[in-house]
Amino acid sequence: MANIKSQKKRALTNVKRNLKNTAERSRLKTAIKKVLHAVEANNKEEALNAYNECSALLDKAVSDHIKHKNYASRQKSRLMKAVNTVK
User: Fold this and answer.
1) CA-CA distance, 33 to 19, in Å (whole number)?
2) Residues 6+ apart with CB under 8 A from 60
3) pLDDT per residue over 47-75, tens digit each?
4) Which of 11, 21, 22, 50 makes an SS bond possible with 35, Cβ 3.0 to 4.6 Å?
5) Are 83 and 47 spatial neighbours (Cβ–Cβ below 8 Å)?
6) What is d(CA 80, CA 82) in angstroms, rounded to the nearest whole number?
7) Banded pLDDT at 87 (limits 50, 70, 90)
8) Average pLDDT over every residue of 33-55
9) Per-residue pLDDT at 1 exceeds 90
10) Where are the domains of the chain?
11) Long-range Cβ contacts of 58-65 (<8 Å, 24+ apart)
12) Which of 32, 52, 53, 45 is nearest to 87 (CA)?
């Protein structure tokens, strides 16, 4: 553990931020899987709802600097392409 007060605080905030970012990444991966499972089940309405939720989470991840904007754009494109294949 650090000796300087500001380093102690930085160590604590790093732990908190790491937990928050890990939870956010996990939530994002779950949302992506939810869209893909809805596509596999041929449920267009559920897939669109899941896509809208996932798209919002991707945008939030970009604004929070958790994911790169190109990653979010690529995932949204890939997921929308999958949703459009459902009849």
Assistant:
1) 21
2) 24
3) 999 999 999 999 999 999 999 999 999 99
4) 50
5) yes
6) 5
7) confident
8) 97
9) no
10) 5-84
11) 58/28, 60/24, 61/24, 61/25, 61/28, 64/21, 64/24
12) 45
